[in-house]
Design brief:
The protein is an alpha+beta fold and about 210 residues long. The chain is built from eight helices and eight strands, in the order H-H-H-E-E-H-H-E-E-E-E-H-E-E-H-H.
Amino acid sequence: KAAQAAATPAGLRARIAAAVLALHTALFPVAPANLGSAVEKMRQEATFGFEPSFTTKEINTVFEKMDAAKTTRSRAKEKRYEADLDKMVALGKKNIASNLLAELNAKQAGKWEVVENTEGHGYEGDIIIAERGKKANWHISEDPGCIELSPPVQTMDTILPSMTALFKATKKAGVYPEVEFGGSGGGGGHTHIGRGVFDKNPLLLRN
């Protein structure tokens, strides 16, 4: 029974995880007190810039048709699909913005508002949702074939409420993360991690 359990996908993952942990412990022994201190420093000081991307089946379909038109050098079809894609993405951004604004203001009405895009980067159609009286803002823009959201800079304490609002809003808006990362239509997103906490505490990179 033990052998059968170990041969299952879950069992294999557990064995791999145990092996990686054993190797890491052998190479980089860390005293529990130091590890706790490192985790606390990460919690207090680390900053994160999330840029998740979302799409729809319709956006993916048109993006694939536009790619096919490029391959066959059919400029007329490519321009038509490009125009259709722009309309779909613009509508998706507006739907996300309205739902996100409602989620962000659910606990405190009027705390967040849509403002003019005056940041000097991105596209004219980008939507900015800013916190009144502060520099924090959400940036709703586009990458090829998908819609990209950039929340304000996050810490470990703010990630959960921000991501909860984000995914509630996108679900209501009818968009979803692209599951085939890097496939047609783009999507998936990425995360930036501020280097400041590592400059001051280089052992965090090892730990």
